[in-house]
Fold:
Amino acid sequence: MELTWFGHSTWRVEIDSTTLLIDPFFDNPKTDADPTDVDPDYVLLTHGHADHIADVGAYDCPVAGTPEVVGYCEQAFDIGETIGFNLGGTIELGDAHVTMHRADHSNGMETAPDATGGMPAGYLIGAAPPLAADDDPVFYHAGDTALMSEMADVIGEFLEPDVAAVPIGDHFTMGPEQAAIAVDWVGADLALPMHYDSFPPIEVDTDEFADAVESHSDARALVCDADERLAVESELPATAAD
Structure:
């Protein structure tokens, strides 16, 4: 598995020959990439806020998410193919298995006040379905979320992610301290911060997150440089990919 953070909550996940792009939003201060610099096989959307779907129209590939979100994007961005699925469901996208889990957040559409995106989501992504006996790493993209008990009771207990990307910007999501608790609850070995510094209300000191992770868990916190590809093997931690 290889991971690339493009700032905010935008991640590329590469599993074997399949490339997934989550929450494409390249108008953020961390990345130097343009939407057209990425050529995904599939796009995944966690929810319908503009800072998570803004660049979805740049891609000619299937877009997956809740039926409400992908239905809205199909109309608003003229998406040719969508895959609607829902909380608890697992779908196979090329070489990747993707399981949707809830996130604790809101989900209205700023550009369509009467539209709703249903429940916000996070994703667990790996080469094998959840609960399968497999040594391949599982990546948890938490989406925009607050701290929630399902992280300990369901995600950590049964789905067992190895790597967790968690929002730390506070104000709209968890802040550094609660995000570190989330890392402990899901039992990840590697913690990657996201959804911070994109605009003034979510500017934070990432050292606070790293210190909190060390205090609350046995995980390693890694503050990624945007646009840098990381190789995640069955033996963590991740290393910079060639």
